[in-house]
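Supplementary Note 3. Input sequence used for the single-chain structure prediction.
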Amino acid sequence: MTALAVAFVALNQLGVGLALVQTTAPESAKVRGARQLLAQGKTEFAARTLAEAISDNPGDGPAYLLLGEMLNDDNRSGEAVEPLTDAVRLLPDSAEAHNALGEALSNLNALGAARAEFERALQLAPKMALAHLNLGMILAQTEELARAAEHLDFAIAKLGATPDAARAHYLRAKVYTDLSQVERARAELQVAVKIAPDFAEAWSDLGEARKTLLDDAGALTAFERAVALSPSDPVALSRLGNELYREGKIKQAILELDKASRINPKDQTTLNSLQAALRADGQTARADQVKADLVAVLRERDQSTQNEFSAIRLNEEGAKLEKAGDMKGALDKYRQGLQLDPEDIGIRVDLARALLRQGQWKEGLSQLAESMQRRPGDPVLKAAWDDALRQAPPGSWP
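The predicted structure, written as discrete structure tokens, is reproduced below.
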């Protein structure tokens, strides 16, 4: 996984507050009133007002759009998808609606669907800076670095010194880092923290860039700033601990690495650094225990990798048996694969579809429901669920 993919979650968490965009469609008095309530921080009253607007007029696209934006801004992206989908249906030519739906989908890691929405937004509004930024984020995750850079550069040129621009500079730095252009990455990160001084992830990455460029003092300052802003971030804590260890500040290093290890006890880098710092401090017994923990983590990771490969192989065998008409054998293979890797949504969906084809409605629907719980808001899963429910006999699902 590239630095870009790792950064994506941090970007989503940075946020810039609710984007109170105006749609091209005329707004009802209640939608305008909801916007005023939002501007005053009265989100609960705004939500009620929007619910009333939709009840009065189920075709009120701007009401659905603003409601979806509110939910997404409140970290309720799974709930935001439905009203935003309605907004896109009612406002098909609204770039803002497509962009908002794309943001909710991207927060749910439905990257393909999100990309389609951002691309549609740019077809409708080619100069929409936020859509360029969002599409650049998706392309970064799929490692299409050249195209990601083009969209991010456009966003940077248009956004000026805004919080969204800080996000664009941060992600542009990730592109430069993955291309080993560390000097340029540092420059972008310095702009990001100048625009958004409380951007903890940018400070942490700036520390890494400075360390690579042998600016030890600057690196330590950036790492300390990152931890001060985000004291529960295990990555920031681990980076600070490592830098303190490199500078011979062993006891301080142990304190930071200890914190990081408690938050993320399975991080290999943190455990390795903590073990070294403890040995340097003469705490041999504790260092041996950390080493044992590290060995256990590595073994677990190896076993997990083996299980994933085995699960994929079993799923492929199941697909071949299903194609050959051996549904019993196919179901057995799918179940074995899912037992090895319960987190693989693809295997779970393949099992669900095979069960439904065999008329085993309750189990098939149960597997689809579990898939949607693990990946809320995924439009493909939702469509499969709706289609299955339409075909299911009465009483097949509570």
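Residues 307-391 form a domain with the Serine Threonine Protein Phosphatase 5, Tetratricopeptide repeat fold (CATH 1.25.40.10). Residues 5 and 141 are 5 Å apart (CA to CA).
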